Amino acid sequence: MKAVLFFVAILLAAILLLISVGVGIGFVLHWLLPTIDIGIGALIGLIAFISAVQIVTRLMMSVPVEAEDEDVEVRDMKPSDVVYLVGGAPSKRRRKRKANR
Question: Are 76 and 67 in contact (CB under 8 A)?
């Protein structure tokens, strides 16, 4: 029963954090641009904050644990570990037209 109450308390704290950050960003947006309503600003702030948290957690989870160890000299390379650098498309140069004389 204590574990369930602990889980509910953490869930409520996380929800309150998300809502408070959303309302804070909504208030700042309403203060900077009065045409934006506080409710829509809070929605924009909430979506932006959740997206930022998701991106940060994905980046933190993408770092392999083996990369942090300095003792590992050689690691098996998988095809997903290889990064190919691709240059931009070559620019097409237009030929100058000859002037009709």
Answer: no
pTM over 0.70: no
101 residues of the chain, pLDDT tens digit each: 888 899 889 989 988 888 888 888 889 988 999 898 888 888 888 898 888 888 888 888 877 666 555 544 456 667 777 777 777 666 677 767 777 76
d(CA 45, CA 42): 5
How many whole angstroms separate alpha carbon 100 and alpha carbon 58? 61
Where along the chain do its domains lie? 2-62
49 C-beta neighbours (distance < 10 Å), count? 18
